[in-house]
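We examine the record.

___
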Amino acid sequence: MPSAFIYLGIMLIVIGIWFMLLKRPVYEAVLISFVVLLTVTGTWGNVWEYIDSGLSTSLIYSMTAFVAMSIILTKTKVIDSCVAIILSLLGRVTGGAGYVSVVASSFMGALSGSGPGNVMATGTLTIPAMIRSGFPRELAANIESNASYMGNMIPPSSNIVAAMGAYIALYPNENMTTGQFWVVLWGISLWFILQRIVMVWAFCKYYKVKPMSKEELPSLKEVFKNGWQGLLIPVIILLPFVFDYLFKDNFFTARLGKDGAKYFSSSLLLFIAGIAAFYTCLITKDKSVVSPQGIAKMFASGIKTISPAIGVCIIGYMIGTLFKDMNVAEEMEAFIVSIRFGKLGMVLFICVFTCVLGMVIPGSSLVVIFGPMFISILATVGVSPLLAAAMLPCICGVMCGITPPLGLGMYAGMSLAESDFDKTFKNNLWWVAAQFIMQVLCLMGWLPILGL
């Protein structure tokens, strides 16, 4: 057996014991695994090099900016008005509460970047609405959790920054802009949103679900009047990247040069989050929340959200550098390629492999540590490297979030729906299976993807 698999096995065992058995935070589990790997590999002499590598990765600062933005969006409750508008529009159709959950939670998840947190935020509105409409409790829990974890693969989620970094590490001369990468991600996400909508429709037919009662629906005129400004937030975030994609060659490169256009594209990740957060502060009704003292309290209470997410990524980069020194990725790639899978066989293998790893390792860590290896392996069998990179947040972040035992979204939805564990688990298997099938269809290139 290649030594790479021994190191991977050690990491999985340590994380499994620390996180799943001892119930300690995941960032602790990843840190302990790093310490154990340093000891086993005898690389303590390089520890400062690994720490410097983790802290000097520029993408970490982009992740921090978007996580900080998500805290402001969540704490000010500006996007609650967006959910109310979607509810007033879709709640009138049969199973409307389920469709609201898919659309609103995908949108909210992309902004917040937290699967379980998003379940608890939007689920307090959508899950009771679904149950009152006739959805079984276990189904309501799974619709919400599976929709919420869509945020891991829809820009501007921080997982996406890590995936783009993995692609750039392999193909530094491709001159790909952030806008181009995001457009491909949106193209992929549309298929998965459609898949969830179709499943909601099918379950509604099976359980004979009814529309929401008129008494429960908010007035569209009233909620639009109070919350239309919140609808501009996704425009502020997404429009610059669309322009970057559409006018990269004809406008930005012509005026700024090739390098200038490249650096302009990269800088979008830093300042767009700040602009969106500033706009949110301007339109917030309760100005006391966004006063200097209020913002300080906001981030003080949100530090538990920022620290684990960023900490896991930093430690993940440190482990990635250690693995690079030990040639772990190269050994694993050589071993997997030597099995001589065809394109379909390799796609199936990678999807199963990431699903199993995601049961123990957080999706963001998977992308950081093994992302370049997954891209390289898939490219050897004819998968577009750009498509493989854009699918990383999906096959790692989303699948990790919905698959037990690490499927934290299911547990969050189950607690709100007060559903039975066995029924929720069995129903969740339908969603996991559909997610898996969609991943294979996308990676095989059997579905047209916007931007490719």
In short: The CA atoms of residues 353 and 395 lie 10 Å apart. DSSP finds 21 helices and no strands in the chain.
